[in-house]
């Protein structure tokens, strides 16, 4: 699996089922947890109270699940594959399999698990299967996400 970087002009036809992508990583900090809590109103003690998190059986405060998911979505945009996305269609099958701790470095890995044309010849749909992976190679979250993507103008014209 190789990393893709930069802002590319990737069209629907450029990726097919089985293609794999890897985004860059980020080290989760105290600031991520505090800012996420402030942004979303999610002031749960597991994320903000060290003693509470340890009493709950964790090694320390843990990242919010939706924060981990958002980091994966955002970090994969840095690969440049989303330059022709016309719409984000949603998430499915979200599973958190391990906690993300302050100091963990996570990165997204994604595979194109579905690619289909739509009834409109200028667009197609990609479904990506995501894995959020920490610095130890452990999968901490999985989910799928679908996107409506512009097709190459010459490809759309061929079907007209």
UniProtKB/TrEMBL annotation:
Organism superkingdom: Bacteria
Pfam hit, one: MaoC_dehydratas
Residue span(s) of domain MaoC-like: 18-121
PANTHER family documented for this protein: BETA-METHYLMALYL-COA DEHYDRATASE (PTHR43664:SF1), MONOAMINE OXIDASE-RELATED (PTHR43664)
Family in the record: Belongs to the enoyl-CoA hydratase/isomerase family.
The protein, known as: MaoC/PaaZ C-terminal domain-containing protein
């Amino acid at each position: 699996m190789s990393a893709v970087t930069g802002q590319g002009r990737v069209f629907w036809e450029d990726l097919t089922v089985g293609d794999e992508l890897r985004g860059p990583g980020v080290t989760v900090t105290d600031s991520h947890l505090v800012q996420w809590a402030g942004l979303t109103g999610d002031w749960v003690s597991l994320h903000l109270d060290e003693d509470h998190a340890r009493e709950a059986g964790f090694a320390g405060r843990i990242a919010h699940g939706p924060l981990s998911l958002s980091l994966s979505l955002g970090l994969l945009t840095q690969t440049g594959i989303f330059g022709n996305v016309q719409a984000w269609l949603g998430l499915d099958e979200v599973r958190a399999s391990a906690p993300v701790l302050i100091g963990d470095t996570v990165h997204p890995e994604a595979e194109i698990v579905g690619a289909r044309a739509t009834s409109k010849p200028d667009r197609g749909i990609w479904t990506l299967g995501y894995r959020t992976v920490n610095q130890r190679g452990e999968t901490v979250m999985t989910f799928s996400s679908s996107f409506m993507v512009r097709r190459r103008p010459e490809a759309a014209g061929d079907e007209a």
